[in-house]
Write the structure tokens for this entry.
Amino acid sequence: MLLRFIGLPGRYAAMLRKLTILLATAVVATACATSPTGRKQLMLVSEEQAISASRQAYVQEMGKYKQAGKLVTDPRVVNRVKVITGRLVAQAVKMRPDSAGWEWSVQVIDDPKNVNAWCMAGGRMAIYTGLLLKIDPTDDELAQVLGHEIAHALANHTAERMSVAMASQAGVLAAGILSDQPMQTMAIAATAAQVAVQLPNSRTSESEADRIGIELAARAGYDPRAAVTLWQKMAMAGGGKAPPAFLSTHPGDAERQQRLGALVPAMMPYYQAPGTRPTYPVRVGAGAA
């Protein structure tokens, strides 16, 4: 049951507000998890909650695009994206076996101005035609984009970003703590959509996704050197003007290119190992729309 401050004497209301802040601080202090790279993460939202919210958000988002006729159906484009995604997912499942039960899916959205891609919790993905048209990536480069986004899901970044968003809203967090209703009663589906599609990742999680994504791509048989050429193309796509959305949410500076380049030697053995190009990749669906 929600505590109500309205109508309480001033000193009692102040005491309850302090109690709320203390409870919120305690939850933030104890709700921690560890990422695949060993980094500590704030987790007020469980991965299961994030996956459930993402499922709802994905259906809503894709439903809008389908109604507007913005979901690409050209088999050449769709099959290319699905084959690359399938090979990456096969490696993702090896890295995190529990992800085999996720509803992996990918859609290509017809938006020539949007140079972007994303992956929600549970493996629900999308890529915009602007990235394909303006960057004109090779398969190796496209695998770096998709691998990077898959890495966000493997590292549970959706739940982490939802947790940070909720922790930054003291009123919402307090309501969740003091309510006898589960956290799902708050609009976490909308939060999942916002953090996946609109809000930028932190530089820490971006670096983490870079590291995991380049390895996924290399293990799937895609040249890790393409990570560097991809970001060179991304930088050029800005043309000295406002950077593409993918750059604004995925900082693409020279330091990042250098960091990825430094990872290449360690990734080459994965890329050159026998059997890195599976004949039958994991089948990836289109998802509900």
The two ends are 36 Å apart (CA to CA). The chain is about 60% helix and 5% strand. The longest helix spans residues 10-30. Residues 50-165+190-272 form one domain.
